[in-house]
């Protein structure tokens, strides 16, 4: 009985060592994949930031265009009502239109900058995650993990053997097994 227990414990140690090796290998592979995905996400966030800025510029241009159309309509209306374009009322109306257009352009620009900043911060965070995943993956050594697990199991098996010897448990191999291994000697 003692021999069988030692064989099973030794087999379990080998199995555990192999399992530890493959678990570490899988963890390292998963971390490397996470790093690649984070890098792709970072590039996508940077692209979104560029798109937001281009959309913001287009929106600002549309605001300026609309303001020019409004001012042109105002001038036409003023002239058709026989109001001097240099009069205080006409100048105040045109200045007010310019002010409102400039405020809308600044708002559109600020909104685009805020959105782009958010995407750039997301990209920075994704790059940080990629760096951490790569660093963690570099720190994983499947061979060392498997060997450590195997050596721990072997030490436990040795301890069990010593405890069995101290307790006078028979740890000899069965007679049939001794005959097989002693044929060559």
What does this structure look like?
With 185 residues, the protein is mostly helical. It has one domain. Helices cover 88% and strands 0% of the residues. The chain has 4 helices and no strands. It has helices spanning 2-80, 88-138, 142-166, 175-182. The protein is rod-shaped and about 125 Å long. The two termini are 26 Å apart. The mean pLDDT is 90.
Write the layout of secondary structure elements.
Layout (H helix, E strand, L loop, with lengths): L1 H79 L7 H51 L3 H25 L8 H8 L3
Helix pairs in contact: 1-2, 1-3
Listing every helix as H and every strand as E from the N terminus to the C terminus, the arrangement reads: HHHH
Broad shape: rod-shaped
Task: Count up the helices.
Answer: 4
Approximately how much helix is present in the residues? over 70%
Gyration radius (Cα, Å) is: 39 Å
Averaging pLDDT over every residue, what do you get? 90
Which structural category fits the helices and strands?
mainly alpha
What is the tally of beta strands?
A: 0
**Cα-to-Cα separation, first versus last residue:** 26 Å
Main pleated-sheet profile: none
Count the domains.
1
């Amino acid at each position: 009985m003692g021999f069988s227990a030692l064989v099973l414990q030794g087999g379990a140690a080998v199995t555990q060592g192999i399992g530890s090796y493959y678990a570490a290998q899988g963890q390292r592979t998963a971390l490397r994949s996470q790093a690649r995905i984070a890098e792709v996400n970072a590039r996508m966030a940077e692209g979104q930031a560029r798109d937001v800025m281009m959309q913001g510029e287009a929106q600002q241009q549309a605001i300026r265009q609309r303001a020019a159309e409004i001012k042109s309509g105002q001038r036409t209306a003023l002239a058709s009502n026989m109001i001097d374009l240099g009069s205080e009322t006409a100048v105040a109306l045109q200045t007010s239109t310019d002010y409102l257009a400039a405020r809308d352009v600044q708002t559109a620009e600020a909104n685009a900058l805020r959105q782009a900043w958010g995407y750039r911060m997301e990209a920075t965070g994704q790059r940080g995650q990629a760096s951490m995943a790569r660093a963690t993956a570099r720190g994983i050594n499947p061979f060392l993990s498997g060997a450590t697990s195997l050596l721990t199991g072997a030490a436990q098996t040795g301890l069990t053997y010593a405890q069995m010897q101290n307790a006078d448990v028979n740890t000899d191999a069965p007679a049939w097994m001794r005959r097989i291994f002693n044929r060559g000697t």
